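During the second year of the project, the team shifted from modelling isolated chains to modelling whole assemblies. The rationale, set out in the original proposal, was that interfaces cannot be judged from single-chain predictions alone. As a representative example for this report, we include one of the complexes processed in the last quarter. Its constituent sequences, exactly as entered into the pipeline, are reproduced here:
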Amino acid sequence: MNATRQNTDESQIRELVEAWAQAVRRHDLDDIAAHHSADILMFDVTAPPQLRGMEAYKESWRNFIAWLGDSGKFEVSELEVAGGADVAFCHGIIHCAGAGSTSGLTIRLTIGLQKVDGQWTVTHEHHSEAQPS
Amino acid sequence: MNATRQNTDESQIRELVEAWAQAVRRHDLDDIAAHHSADILMFDVTAPPQLRGMEAYKESWRNFIAWLGDSGKFEVSELEVAGGADVAFCHGIIHCAGAGSTSGLTIRLTIGLQKVDGQWTVTHEHHSEAQPS
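Output from the structure prediction step:
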């Protein structure tokens, strides 16, 4: 494995995730979906169990942004990236809260990416909240 | 990208996931964890939000197997694999039910893998159930 290539890929993916989180915070749907496949398969926090394709992906974010409001919180932490030559995945924790809420949610995030025409492209996202044990 | 290599990697990962599901069905903890990293990071269906390491991973399966019982169900469907040269991920749906239960659960599954010493190794699993919308 080429260590320089790997470091570059991991940096690109960290930048992609941070730009995505910033886009969520400024409610910019086009930028949220800027590096995503038209055929993305999403497992969202709430039902239905899975969503397929860009329109469904954007619709899920429209609903989330309405909940987030102008004073909500959306911060990605503990991001770990496994960056290969052409396929990568990463996972982390999203701390988020809706506008005016007194308590936040801890959301687990996994993102799957594939390199398409030299650009990292998100083809899968899995968001969930752990159920009470 | 080498198409033959990619097909081989995807086949190996499908076989790994099917062998893992079979090991769950026969309650074989060692085989469940046979292709997993000692440092695995798991997001399980239930709290806590994340588990780190082989002991925590096996403990989560001990609890699940007790729930599954001798007549439970654990079937992986809709598996899609993105297999790179050294990093891969896959996702699918697990239909499962505890012994004697009349209704099943729909669990979303994402697995992240890295090639270690030429062998695909699971370094991340994310299991979740969608919350009611």
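Chain A touches chain B through 35 residues (CB under 8 Å). The first helix of chain A runs from residue 3 to 25.
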